[in-house]
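Late entry, evening session. Most of the bench is empty. Finally got around to the prediction I had been postponing all week. Sequence below, unchanged from the version circulated by S.P.
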Amino acid sequence: MKVNIRDLMDNIEDSSVNLEEDVVSTARIKEMAMKKVNNNSDNKTNTTKHTSGKTAVIAAIAVALVAGLGITSYAEFGGGLENLTFGTEQTSEAPVKPAPAPGASDTPDTPVTFPGDYSGKSNNTADISLQGYSDSPEYLASKEWNEFEMNYDTDWAILNEVGNDPTEWDEKYGAYTVYSQEMADKIDEITAKYDLKLHSSRCTSAQQAEIEEKFGVLMSDATYVGYYFEDGTLQVDGNYGDFNFQLRRTVKGVLDTVYLGINGIDDYEQWTYTTASGVTVYLALSEGQGLMIADCDNSFVVVNAMLSWSDSTMSKEQFEAWADKVNFADL
């Protein structure tokens, strides 16, 4: 199952976090998948699409603006959202066949649609890496796994046969929702090819105080809750003023397959910005979505600002001020 930055946080709330709980247990693959299909069509601002009946996510992104920096290409700076995409495509609202319910042979009669357009302007979509830019082994590994997974078991036949029972792959590959030997072999092939390690199969869900004790203050003037793996890969969902956000820190040298689907590709402005702490980050902003991207020494950090979930607006200056609140220097 493709996993994405939205799906992994859906069941975590500030007041009820279960510690040491599997985030993506194979024993619950089918329940999770079906829940996404049934629930995501009712979201206030939908961020999920289903490519082959498995989970994915939709957000938003932009064209580049690096004027005044003397940069003639993204590669010279090492940034730019184009250097994160796994590919773009034209999409429109269309029915998607849901995953089969646990123990059921038929799917619901009514198809589910996933518009997922934050701005209401463009339907250009792309999936972007949350692991690194296109020349990094982490990017290449994530891209290869997601392409494999998208074309694997598209009719859910293998998953139906596995059912909801624990499997022999849970302990080692629990973070990747592996449910067959073919999938396990592919994971091993990719990690060997790109010299990467695996996430542990378990992660820790935590309140803000515990997260800050381990990682320091991630963002000033914000509240958040999240989870982390033993290797230091971290994700939080939170609030900054009137705005909802997600922050994902992916440790380098580890296979991570979570991605972000972006929508409204022509509606965004991109630029570089040096934060108050001296860290150069890449920013992308539209009416409904903002992204902050930092390629740090030991990790790759993306802040996904879901602006359309608020009645407030966000200017470039305000977005830069927000970026100043993120502790990129220590992430």
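Two things to note before I forget:
The chain has eight helices and 16 strands.
Residues 137-150 form the longest helix (14 residues).
Will write this up properly tomorrow.
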